[in-house]
Amino acid sequence: MARISDKIKSIDGSREMLKLAVRVTDLWFVGTPNKSEQTKMVIVDSEGDQIHAVCKADQLKSWKADLKENSTYVMHNFKVVKNDSQFRVCEHEYKLVFIRVTVVREVDLHELPFKEFRFVEIGNVVARNFVAGLLVLFRHVSSKNTRVVFRMKDLSS
């Protein structure tokens, strides 16, 4: 009988022999191609919980062609480390690092949720009352030097 998948919310740093059924909701590459490049991703499980995962340069060659945004996977065996960077991309206390024995297998898991946006109240934006250390980035690449202005409106009252 196949082992039941672990849940992201149960990751507490006490073990690294995890089996996760996840969807990659965000995937980006950091560094110089063919030098010190690594990939970072946000993965989500069936309960909508998210965690940051990192595939460093020494493991990236094995997985770069196989990892795709919005695809679903069963992943095993990670190094679990504290998510204590100055800027975090997920609220989870830990993050996962691919190691030599990490296994990634693409599996068709339609029930896994896609990216979920978690909006904050407009009062928290105006008061700059955010979760400490949580960084959310949206990237726009343009060949022109453009300026973007956002107008926000509170529709709650």
From TrEMBL:
Which Pfam family, any one of them, does this sequence belong to? Answer: DUF223
**Top-level lineage group:** Eukaryota
- Protein's recorded name: Replication protein A 70 kDa DNA-binding subunit B/D first OB fold domain-containing protein
Upper lineage: Eukaryota, Viridiplantae, Streptophyta, Embryophyta, Tracheophyta
- Ranges for domain Replication protein A 70 kDa DNA-binding subunit B/D first OB fold come to 11-106
Q: Which InterPro entries match?
A: NA-bd_OB-fold (IPR012340), RFA1B/D_OB_1st (IPR003871)
- What is the source species? Glycine max
| Cross-referenced SUPFAM superfamilies | Nucleic acid-binding proteins (SSF50249)
